[in-house]
Amino acid sequence: MSKEKFTTLKSAAVPLPIENIDTDQIIPARFLKATTREGFGENLFRDWRYDSDGKPKADFVLNNPTYTGKILVAGKNFGCGSSREHAAWAIYDAGFRVVVSSFFADIFKNNALNNALLPVQVSDAFLKKILDTVAKNPKSTVTVDLQNQKVVLEDGSSESFDINAYKKTCLTNGYDDIDYLLSLRGEIKQFELTH
Amino acid sequence: MSHSPKTLFDKIWDAHVVKQSEGYPDVLFIDRHFIHEVTSPQAFDGLRKRGVKVFNPDRTTATADHNVPTKDQHLPIKEALSRHQVETLRKNCAEFGVNLYDLGHPFQGIVHIIGPELGLTLPGMTIVCGDSHTSTHGAFGNIAFGIGTSEVEQVLATQCVLQYKPKRMRIEINGKLQRGVLAKDIILYVISKISASGATGYFVEYAGDAITSLSMEARMTICNMSIEMGARGGLIAPDETTFNYIKGRQFAPKGEQFDRLVEQWRHLKTDPGATYDEVLTYDAADIGPMITYGTNPGMGIKVTDRIPTVAELKDISEQTSFKKSLEYMGLEAGSQLLGKSVDYVFIGSCTNARIEDLRLVAQIVKGKKKAANVEVWVVPGSKQVEQQARKEGLDKIFEEAGFELRSPGCSACLGMNEDKIPAGKYCISTSNRNFEGRQGPKSRTFLASPLSAAAAAITGKVTDVRELV
User: Fold this and answer.
1) Which helix or strand (DSSP H or E) is residue B316 part of?
2) Which residues, 6+ apart, have CB-to-CB distance to B191 below 8 Å?
3) Which chain A residues touch B42 with a CB distance below 8 Å?
4) To bridge B380 with a disulfide, which of A125, B183, B385, B462 should be the other Cys (CB 3.0-4.6 Å)?
């Protein structure tokens, strides 16, 4: 099944300069009860975003109209904790297409890549530069160029990022891992017989 | 011809690669797949949309654990969304021919507890589940790791996942453990040393005599928390302890077949001279009863130590998180946790809800009463653990102490069902995560061993268990 294709994204960024943001913060367990993939965006960062009565907390960045855009910029070790893919679904559902951090937890990274959400790992120094730039001018844009594997800021400064070739092809073309694996079913059956 | 020496991890991985191509991740065959109600419905939906059947239903086992009540399990689940999720699992398993240990079944329980206790988890296997604590199964000398729902769909459809091979780390613990120090303390100690992301990108092999002298259940506690330092999984080479544990279990191979397999399993160890990308060595004697003070499992200290001050942090970039954490926890940097009053004690989860854990707790509390200021929940890891506890009379000991023995499930480890720690309250918990709100909105978690939790239940405060044993 094809996914949304990703080529280049130029957008303002939403800063969340906190380290070790775990998947329980991204989407608390009590909101994992749905049996579909849609609708999790409403509860993205639920307990940081809303008080216990469900009122938006004014000091949380997603409630601040100054910050808009499809790029979330977060502190290191983003997405640690549980394997819930709901975390990637929630971020995507809330309109983000890229998460920039200086370090990602493994399972989250895979989950994001499987859902057309691009995790972009930059150096600590470049992360700080992006955060400083956005703090000075929230409307300042960040360009994420998947083809050339580059993040470019408005002042022209840039940093390249790594992504494996297979995942890059999948994202660029909207391919899906399962289509590839299904094409190998014959080989897999053979392997199972002799394994 | 000489073979280059291999680590145990590499041996198992390489034996499961169906296809390896330049630029592509490995196509890794999966021997055993566990599923539960929370991370599987969207995967089954995917199969329906594609018109695909389950590749080999015999390799998948399902149970309901994350979102089930731990009281009145014989009644329909009260909460509509939770009920729907469990019913969806039931429907999906029936439609796709997957074996389900549903609520009320004598084999139901937390997915990582029932796999090993039923003899479904064996050495040398590849095992996955849509749950990060799948690393638990690695205690048997296999490659077990958590996956997302898209990957659950991959496994259901093709019995394979696409994976890049992680790096290898060896963590060696040598020497003799102090009295009152358990496997939980070992792993909390290691995570406190290397941080919550210290093993990201790695698969860990645990070794050393402090590890090999542990029981299977204690080894599971160690491997369970591999993910809490970022590792995809952790494993321990199988030995006589492993084989003895497996022998005679419900679905374990029997008779001659078992003996033949044991001969093969004896080869499942790292070759002399094999290299790891990272090797860490610790002295067991340095490990004391541990407790966490912050909001990630790396924020742990010996129960007799002070919480660090900002100036003492190893990593300056952690300062913001550290301050935010302590504010959330209502604690002061540089202060002691010992003697801090607690409100709840949770003994449960895939980390510490096996029969040995319950026995340890019973040992401490036998003939005593819980402190008046605490509420104590004991949630067994499975129906079988619960039955065994009753058979041994542990239920009576708990009852007399004023503890509540519940029915099996993940419960207050993640607060998905109604077992939530109220806002602002402190819970000393045998589970695996102390994230903000993990046990309920604004709840505050201290992770510790079953002995430390039992000690706190009796005294009503954070206690050095060595004073009681």
Assistant:
1) none
2) B198, B225, B228, B229, B297, B298, B300
3) 35-37, 85
4) B385
Q: C-alpha angle with apex A81: A80 to A85, nearest 5 degrees?
A: 90
Nearest to A1 among B50, B200, B435 (CB): B50
B29 touches chain A (CB under 8 A): yes
For B298-312, what is each residue's pLDDT tens digit? 999 999 999 999 999
**Across the interface, do B19 and A184 touch by the CB < 8 Å criterion?**
yes
Q: Are A143 and A9 within 8 A, CB to CB?
A: yes
| Mean pLDDT, chain B, integer | 97
Greatest alpha-carbon span in chain B? 70
Question: CA–CA separation, A108 vs B201, rounded Å?
Answer: 12
- Across the range B403-423, mean pLDDT stands at 97
Reference B242, options B354, B111, B351, B123; nearest CA is: B123
Give the tens place of pLDDT for each residue, B265-283.
999 999 999 999 999 999 9
B48 touches chain A (CB under 8 A): no
Instruction: Report d(CA B339, CA B464) in Å as an integer.
Output: 9
- Calculate how close chain A gets to B365, using CA atoms only, in Å: 32
ipTM for this prediction: 0.96
Nearest CA in chain B to A1: B50
Chain A positions in Cβ-Cβ contact with residue B39 (cut-off 8 Å): 83-85
Contacts of B415 in chain A (CB under 8 A): 29-30
Mean pLDDT of the region B85-98? 98
Contact B428, B444 (CB under 8 A): no
CB-based contact, A195 to chain B, within 8 Å: yes
Question: Closest Cα to residue B116, out of B385, B347, B392?
Answer: B385
B128 touches chain A (CB under 8 A): no
Alpha carbons B188 and B228: distance in angstroms, whole number: 9
B49 interface with A at CB cutoff 8 Å: yes
Summarised one tens digit per residue, pLDDT across range A7-63 is: 999 999 999 999 999 999 999 999 999 999 999 999 999 999 999 999 999 999 999
Q: Is the pTM above the cut of 0.95?
A: yes
Residue B321, pLDDT score = 85
Q: In the A/B pair of chains, how many CB contacts fall below 8 A?
A: 188
CB B238 within 8 A of CB B212: no
B320 has a pLDDT exceeding 90? no
* Chain A residues lying within 8 Å of B416, measured CB to CB: 29-30, 32-33
Q: Is A132 on the interface with B (CB under 8 A)?
A: no
pLDDT in tens, chain A (195 residues): 678 899 999 999 999 999 999 999 999 999 999 999 999 999 999 999 999 999 999 999 999 999 999 999 999 999 999 999 999 999 999 999 999 999 999 999 999 999 999 999 999 999 999 999 999 999 999 999 999 999 999 999 999 999 999 999 999 999 999 999 999 999 999 999 999
By CA distance, what is B12's nearest residue in A? A195
- Per DSSP, what are the bridge partners of residue A13? A71
The 10s digit of each residue's pLDDT in B197-224 is 999 999 999 999 999 999 999 999 999 9
Alpha-carbon distance of B446 to B428, in angstroms, equals: 5
